[in-house]
Amino acid sequence: MIIRIMGEGQLQLDEKAVEELNLLDSKLEAAVEGSDEAAFGLALQALLDRARALGTALPPDAIEPSGLILPREGATIAEVRELLSDGGLIPG
Prior knowledge:
Layout: E1 2-5, E2 9-12, H1 15-33, H2 37-54, E3 56-57, E4 68-70, H3 77-84
Parallel strand pairs: 1-4
Antiparallel strand pairs: 1-2, 2-3
Helix pairs in contact: 1-2
């Protein structure tokens, strides 16, 4: 699956990596729902760090359809709340 981190670029991830990221997505979603700023910051950073560690960056000039889009580093709860309105950042 190809994912995009807003403002950074695209990464190729295998399905096992997507499953792992889905667990981190659940923690991020819970922090957003609880308006817990501290937990939100940690969960967002963990999700982005893990996506970067598990993914392989696509060349900057490659533009592929993204299966999911992750918020940018430093995003606010309000920004992520909008992205979560469809039931989570990561399908499944």
